[in-house]
Amino acid sequence: MNQPRTFYGKGIPGVATKDLKGKLIVIEGADGSGCSTQIALLTEWLERRGHAVEHVGLKRSTLVGDELAKAMRGNVLSPRTLSLFYATDFTDQLEHRILPALRAGFIVLADRYIYTLMARDIVRGADLPWLQSVYGIALVPDLVMYLRVPPQKLMERNIYRGRELDYWESGMDIGYSWSWHDSFIRYQSELHRSFNRLQAVYGFVTVNGMRVPRSVTRDLQTHIESVISPNG
User: Fold this and answer.
1) Average model confidence (pLDDT) for the chain?
2) Is residue 173 within 8 Å of 80, Cβ to Cβ?
3) CB distance 167 to 75 below 8 Å
4) What is the pLDDT of residue 158?
5) Which CATH number is 117's domain given?
6) pLDDT tens, position by position, 10-52
7) Please, what's the b/e burial string for 135-144 (b: 16 or more CB within 10 A of its CB; e: otherwise)?
8) Is there a contact between 155 and 184 (Cβ–Cβ < 8 Å)?
9) Residue 127 within a domain
């Protein structure tokens, strides 16, 4: 049976949640956990079944997405500025992409949502009640699935793909270590703990992200079926 839609806090004024007929499905996880791969596989699966799909994610706002990406390349943002930049990016997408798509009956697949932003901010010293007030505008998703992948495995995936470690995803701004490798492992371990804390608060589904992509996809599809079926 469908549950009434709600926001985490006051939400966006003037939004009639009864008009949001679509489904909001979130895939969470650290960089390298496979979120983007799973979004692509799930999109193909859903579209074959006749569903219209909209994508959202981090740094995709037409208002500040490009500016945020440029600012991050400078590696000089303070934790609070970075947090508010991401919150603005999220809010713009919520108002101009997520809500209109849900009104039109689309399935919105979010390549991360507020939980990644909150987890990152917690590691950088932000207070959870403050973050909950900032993201009180957020719509409660129909389903949130967190791809759990240990830090060492994330490191191995970066090496295998020949990717350089990202400054922010390695926590280099925090000052754990001059070694990018050591800082990455420490930061991702702290992020892992933050996700555990948020999972206890928000109750999202945890999925083993260590397996081959198709095995992970089958698990995600099973959970999605439970919310997009007529009785979901």
Assistant:
1) 90
2) no
3) yes
4) 78
5) 3.40.50.300
6) 888 888 889 999 999 999 998 888 899 999 999 999 999 999 9
7) bebbbebbbb
8) yes
9) yes
7 and 24 Cβ atoms separated by less than 8 Å:
no
In single-letter form, the type of residue at position 129 comes to: P
CA distances from 232 to 86, 225, 226, 227 (A): 31, 8, 5, 4
13-27, 51-65, 98-112, 126-140: range with lowest mean pLDDT: 51-65
Nearest partner of 46 among 143, 189, 157, judged by Cα: 143
Helix (H, G, I), strand (E, B) or coil at 10: coil
Q: Sheet holding 107-111: strands in order across?
A: 53-57, 107-111, 23-28, 143-148, 205-208
Question: Which residues contact residue 135 at a Cβ distance below 8 angstroms, ignoring those fewer than 6 apart?
Answer: 8, 9, 87, 90, 114, 117, 118
The residue behind tokens 């979010």 is 110
DSSP for 19-30, please give it. Answer: G--SEEEEEE--
Q: What is the mean pLDDT of residues 106-110?
A: 97
The pTM (predicted TM-score) of the whole model is: 0.91
Q: Identify whether 68 is part of a domain.
A: yes
Highest mean pLDDT among 12-16, 104-108, 165-169: 104-108
Count up the domains in the chain and report the number: 1
Q: What is the CA radius of gyration of the chain?
A: 17
In a domain, 156, yes or no: no
- Report how far residue 232's alpha carbon sits from residue 219's, in angstroms, rounded to the nearest whole number: 17
Residue-wise pLDDT tens digits, 21-31? 999 999 999 88
